[in-house]
Amino acid sequence: MSVEKLTFAEPFFTVLYVEKEEKFSVEPMSLVINLAHKANQPLYVRDMPVAPLKATVVAGVELTHVEKALVFLDYAKLNLKDKTTTEKIKTNWRSLYQCSGQERHKGLPYYKSPKVRVGGDTEFNVCYVDAYNYPSGPHREHDRNFDEVHAQILGMGMMQKVESKEWEQDRKIKVYQEFIMAPGIIHDKFYNKKGEYPWHQYCSITPCVYLPIEIDR
Ligand SMILES: [Fe+2]
Question: Domains of the chain, with CATH numbers?
Answer without folding.
Answer: 2-75 (2.60.120), 80-216 (2.60.120.990)
